[in-house]
TrEMBL record:
Taxonomy, superkingdom: Eukaryota
Protein's UniProt name: CCR4-Not complex 3'-5'-exoribonuclease subunit Ccr4
Transmembrane segments: none
Pfam families documented for this protein: Exo_endo_phos, LRR_8
Location in or out of the cell: Cytoplasm; Nucleus
Protein's organism: Lentinula lateritia
Needed co-factor(s): Mg(2+)
Length: 852
């Protein structure tokens, strides 16, 4: 029993129920419904509702039924679709699959959908919305005497973010970047030369929409109307219109929908009224911002129709999201060598290498459906994500693992246990607020920074906690600035720095780990935090260089005796920040559980590993300047390559009036209060540093030479996490596909050339990154994570390449089934350069070597 233009099909029918209640919610397309409709409507028992009555929610007269004839006299409308109306409240038809289920009373969200359906059914004429919008925007004569508000607008109070024991992440506020809140200032949307963002192609008789249509190049569109045409299919290329917020495909002859429509994650209103659609693709589960999915008038599957009728569009989207089939995993990430074959051949066999992993793992509290609405709820569960994270970082077998957003519970109950079993020791600190929290349960979910290192290869010499707010309070030039109290002190972000010495060679390295504030409204605070971290690491390097070389025990001798390594940690010193922390910060293994000491540059079958003769340890390097010590900075800097943070770290300088300071005053950094020759550092010209840092992923001058297809065995090769026993542990044989030296690839290993997008010019400043993105969510895609290194003492051998571009083109954002965090893991292998001979003429006034 269905209706076509008011004509009865079958032997019996029911009248359409009157729809009342409040007006529909605000949506991007309903501003144009402001004029009365101009269609000829013929009612059996009375006049129809006016457009004003519909939008104002007025009830019809008591003797009025909604069984109306809605004739369209436009010659362009050449077909008539049957409507599949909702049955009346007082009847219960069990065997009807196409109609809406009977319920008493109708839910408010379903009343609103029926209301919108009635309005759209009256919009059959060509370009109806465009004409109505033009009429509504006609210029109205202004009053001769302008009326103004005599009360001036009150000035908004300055933002003073306060710390709390429990950041309300679950409420979806701006405490963490998410699928709708980008971690940097949102760039302007692409626009055409015109100012229009809506396109009305409704009611003009379009029967075919080719895949090469120029319509799909209008990526600035936010509203697109293709209603009441003769379309029987929608091409997948419509997914290119990523900024669409309203799409109307009502009144066509569509039977199926392309799954690619699930890529339009900005969509809030999606109207499919009066088509022939029987099912909804599960890929629509990524449309997490969708407020209305108009399905009335379709022979939709009973289960789906019942769900949306009873619980609304969000419930249907959640069902589709959690029941969507798992997609195929991406191809392995390829290694990108950054050293030429000639340079590689010229390296001495004893060249020492350092491998580093940097990974923001997304803390438990932030991994919620509210923040990442496109991710299946089961894929956000910590028990699922932690196994993928652990599998990936263990498979790489890196010397150092720098993790961000590691909460106390995850560190103590999971990572500490499993990575200790793999031969790692660690340094961990939560954010500053954890020290003052009285609620133990809340304290255990405060995130922080964890740095793991191979205990068989490196000895921890010093560890240092950098609390930005505390360091800022100690600066004389900051105490006179109002901005420091209003903007800097309200943040509890931290950084950590650790000094290590190689057990075998005696070489030294400083490794810093940081997670910079994400909020784009505080890019000035990002600069201040990075500058404070750089200064603290500079001081640490100057302390480190004054320590004499350690006399390490000799390795295993020919008779099999092993010299003791006990007591090494007793001679190391700690910073004052470490002593003041009430939390356990360092995990150590018993000396009996440490694997035999080995150098990463010596494979198991090398002569140095054979016990036939006594190993002659090389003389440890001598460091005469702090700038000779290798430095590695890892972290989520929440700053893109064009930011002030990137410019400062890559060039070592930043002018005091840089736009990222936003006009705020921060002592000597901005040349404001407290600066001058007598102030700290004596620098009045902005930010300066002698570290000479470079980004490991910055494209070298000679370009990229190729990418190894042999990537370490990672979680992307299979859906199930890799067993721990199959991964490489320090001192053991590397797992298949994993190696200490990333360039020690057999000659038979095939190479794949890097895509042209990775071949960047070295002339641009600052240098662009090889990776197109390290943070991928529906609201943002770009590079935020970096591994910085001192170019005078380290060189880059290879870096872990990008995620499969084909996979990315079909993915809304991370986290998802295959990627457990909104960030991807980045990794680099470095070669250690021997310290250069120094003379008094080659050092600056502070005793530092110039960097190139």
């Amino acid at each position: 029993m269905y209706f076509t233009g008011g004509q009865k099909l079958g032997t019996e029918s029911w009248p359409r129920q009157p729809v009342g209640g409040p007006p529909p919610p605000t949506s991007p397309g309903y501003g144009i419904y402001s004029q009365p409709q101009h269609h000829h409507q013929h009612s059996h028992l009375g006049p129809p509702l006016t457009h004003h009555q519909i939008l104002s929610g007025q009830q019809p007269p008591q003797n009025l039924t909604n069984h109306t004839h809605n004739h369209n006299h436009s010659h362009t409308h050449t077909h008539h679709n049957p409507h599949y109306p909702s049955p009346p409240i007082q009847q219960h038809h069990v065997g009807i699959n196409q109609g809406s289920p009977a319920s008493a009373p109708l839910a408010q969200h379903w009343q609103q959908q029926l209301l919108k359906c009635e309005i759209i059914r009256q919009s059959r004429s060509p370009h109806h919305r465009a004409r109505a919008s033009a009429m509504a925007s006609r210029t109205v004569a202004k009053s001769a005497i302008p009326i103004t508000n005599p009360n001036p607008n009150p000035k908004p109070p300055p933002e003073e973010p306060l710390l709390s024991d429990s950041p309300p992440l679950a409420n979806g506020n701006a405490s963490h970047p998410s699928s709708t809140v980008a971690p940097i200032a949102e760039p302007p949307r692409p626009r055409s030369e015109a100012t229009w963002t809506s396109l009305d192609m409704g009611g003009v008789g379009i029967k075919n929409l080719p895949s090469n249509s120029g319509l799909f190049s209008f990526n600035f569109l936010t509203n697109l109307y293709l209603n009441h045409n003769g379309l029987i299919a929608i091409p997948p290329e419509i997914a290119q219109l990523r900024n669409l917020e309203l799409l109307d495909l009502s009144g066509n002859a569509l039977t199926t929908l392309p799954p690619e429509l699930g890529m339009l994650v900005s969509m809030k209103e999606f109207y499919l009224f009066d088509n022939q659609i029987m099912t909804i693709p599960p890929e629509f589960g990524t449309l997490h911002q969708l407020q209305t999915l108009g399905v009335e008038g379709n022979p939709l599957d009973t289960n789906l129709k019942n769900l949306i009728t009873k619980d609304g569009t969000p419930a249907l989207i959640a069902f589709l999201r959690d029941s969507c089939p798992v997609s195929a995993p991406p191809q392995n990430r390829a290694w990108i060598p950054l050293i030429t074959p000639v340079e590689q051949e010229a390296l001495p066999p004893s060249t020492e290498t350092i491998s580093v992993v940097c990974y923001n793992i997304l803390c438990q509290r932030a991994a919620t459906v509210r923040l990442y609405g496109y991710t299946p709820s089961w894929a956000l569960a910590w028990d699922y994500r932690r196994e993928l994270i652990l599998s990936e970082i263990l498979a790489h077998g890196a010397d150092f693992i720098c993790l961000q957003e590691v909460d106390v519970t995850s560190y103590e109950d999971f990572f500490l246990k499993h990575l200790s079993e793999a031969g790692y020791e660690s340094v961990y600190w939560p954010k500053s607020r954890a020290k003052t929290m009285s609620n133990e349960n809340e304290r255990r979910f405060v995130d922080g920074l964890a740095t793991f290192f191979r205990a068989d290869k490196y000895q921890l010499i010093e560890k240092h906690l950098i609390e930005f707010s505390a360091v800022a309070m100690q600066r004389e030039d900051f105490k006179k600035t109002e901005d420091m109290f209003n903007r800097v002190l309200g943040k509890d972000h931290i950084a950590t720095a650790c000094a290590f010495e190689n057990r075998e060679t005696g070489s030294r390295v400083l490794v810093a780990n940081v997670h910079i504030l994400w909020d784009p409204k505080f890019c000035d605070v990002k600069l201040v935090h990075v500058a404070l971290m750089v200064e603290e690491v500079e001081k640490m390097a100057e302390r480190f260089v004054k320590l004499p070389p350690r006399l390490w025990p000799e390795p295993e001798t020919a008779n099999g005796n092993v010299d003791s390594v006990d007591g090494i940690a007793d001679s190391s010193f700690s910073s004052s920040s470490e002593l003041s922390s009430p939390f356990p910060t360092t995990s150590s293994l018993p000396s009996s559980s440490l694997p035999p000491s080995s150098s990463s540059s010596s494979p198991p079958d090398s002569p140095s590993s054979k016990p036939s003769t006594r190993h002659q340890r090389p003389k440890p390097p001598t460091y005469t300047s702090a700038s000779q010590i290798p430095l590695i900075f890892c972290g989520d800097f929440n700053s893109i390559p064009g930011s002030g943070v990137y410019e400062f770290l890559s060039t070592g300088t930043l002018r005091k009036d840089h736009p990222d300071f936003m006009g705020h005053v921060y002592g000597k950094y901005t040349g404001g209060a407290g600066s001058g020759p007598g102030s700290a550092g004596g620098n009045t010209d902005g930010l300066k540093s002698w570290l000479g840092l470079k980004s490991a992923y910055a494209a070298p001058a000679h370009g990229v030479h190729g990418a190894h297809s042999r990537a370490p065995q990672s979680l992307h090769q299979q859906q199930q996490p890799l067993p721990t026993s199959g991964t490489r542990t320090p001192g053991s044989t590397p797992a298949p596909g994993a190696s200490n030296n990333l360039l020690s690839t057999p000659a038979s290993t095939s190479l794949i050339h890097t895509s042209s997008s990775l071949l960047r010019s070295s002339t641009s400043s600052p240098s662009p990154e090889l990776l197109p993105t390290t943070n991928y969510v529906s609201s943002f895609s770009g590079v935020l994570d970096y591994i910085w290194y001192s170019g005078s003492s380290l060189g880059v051998n290879a870096v872990l390449g990008q995620v499969d571009p084909v996979y990315m083109s079909k993915c809304v954002g991370f986290p998802n089934v295959h990627f457990p965090s909104d960030h991807i893991c980045i990794m680099a292998e470095f070669r250690v350069k021997p310290p250069r001979e120094t003379t008094s003429s080659s050092q600056d006034e502070h005793g530092h070597l110039p960097f190139s």
